[in-house]
Amino acid sequence: MDRKFNYLVVSDLHLRGGYHDRTEGLYHFDEEFADFLRYYRLNRASTRPWQLVIAGDFIEFLYVTDLPDPADPLLPAATFSEDERRYGPSTEAPKARWKLDLILRNSHPQLLLALARFVAEGNHVVILRGNHDAEMFWPEVQAHFLRLIAEHHPADVGYLAMKQTVAQRVRFAPWFWYVPELFYVEHGCQYDAFCGFEYFLNPVLPAQPAYIERAISDLAARYFGGPMNLIDSMAVENIQSIGEYVAWVVRDNLSILPRTFRCYGQMARRILAKSGPPDPEAERIVRTAQEREQAAVEESFGLRAGTAAALQALHATPVMRSVGATARFLGLDLFAGGGALVAIALLLVLLHPAPLGWLPFVGVAAALCAIVYVGALRIRRMKETGQLRRVAEQVAELFQVPYVLFGHSHQAGIWRLRNGGTYFNIGTWIPSPKDAYFVYFALTGDGPAASVGLWRWNKSKERPEPFAQ
């Protein structure tokens, strides 16, 4: 863990691909990513090699809705439930491996070749998991990722040599990446109750450990986002919040309102059926494995005992662990309250039409405005940007590092911490919002001569430029 490297950190590329993925163009950065890596291969800041840290949500597993060919060699004799036939393969290891192969081999060969050339020239890669690529937890999926890089070796490097090089220089970090007295990087989903996992080091369903636990945001994407993408995929993909989506439907797409309500109802029913606390005995087994892995992480980084437990204590309890919290996330209480108010107003007018007149409806309108306001506040609380900044303060103290890095929020920026350190959000490479496009973190040099900061890759000029917040 000494300073053998200079560092590059990227996050949230959300690479997509598939048989019928109409949004793939929004998530295709092979040319830019290859130019980015080529620049840094040819412009080392010193004799040190680069270590590229990919801080989660690198691969977009959530939106693979096609089913494989029955004769596909990666999924021999696989069976699929009614839910999978409608919404896409689930999260078991063999199906996750197939999804990874579908996305990368079919749609991103140039990116794989760029990674192969990068490591062939002596540089290293560390890969973290996020909530959209949680299926990278499975060892066979990780092994397949390494195999794909080796198979896309440069022409002047043989496959066997490339395979050995990849095994030595590409690694998966189970939770976070930490360089003592320098920086800490994690995806950041664990501090978001709508996207995180109760046990990130063992993120399986307690009752069905062959499956990855799904956060409520993932289930909403599966049961609502995916079906709505079939209507206007490019429009939906550029919508950043539930409020924007509602405005998009009401303003320009009233004709799809019935389908929107139908998809919403189906989503709510399916999500509620999966919510609630797990069986205590099944959860005990998962928690024990988590604690065992926490000790292994502490040992691998040379951390004092209890550090991983303290970090785990900062995580947000997933919404799916409470039926009531799940119902509130879905807004079912607000819908029920609004419906009850309208019903009461109608009843009052029918029973006492003369003395009350329009007064009940005026009262209902005011109450509905209050409900909409409460809903807007809930949506605002779902934004995890501020929460990540608060957690960064605690992480900086816990690990005694000057720099804390998260991705996840897609809101790139730089914030000073109370302890004198700095929090960097690495943003995203997806096209919207524009202020987070092709952003990355770079750290080179030592001491007063060190260069630390966020940069933006300028696609047209094929070179970096400082990130302007």
Description:
The protein is α/β, with parallel strands linked by helices. Helices cover about 45% and strands about 15% of the residues. It is built from 16 helices and 14 strands. The chain has helices at about 30-40, 80-85, 95-105, 110-120, 140-150, 160-170, 215-235, 240-250, 255-275, 280-300, 305-315, 325-330, 330-350, 355, 360-380, 385-400, and strands at about 5-10, 50-55, 125-130, 170, 175-180, 185, 205, 210, 405, 415, 420-425, 440-445, 450-460, 465. The strands form three sheets. It has a seven-stranded mixed β-sheet. A five-stranded mixed β-sheet has the order 5-6-9-11-10, with helices on one face. Strands 7-8 form a two-stranded antiparallel ribbon. A hairpin with a 2-residue loop joins strand 7 and strand 8 (about 210). Helix 1 (about 30-40) packs parallel to helix 4. The radius of gyration is 24 Å and the shape is globular. The two termini are about 30 Å apart.
Number of helices: 16
Strand content: 5-15%
Strand order of the largest sheet: 4-3-2-1-12-13-14
The succession of helices and strands, N to C, reads EHEHHHEHHEEEEEHHHHHHHHHHEEEEEE
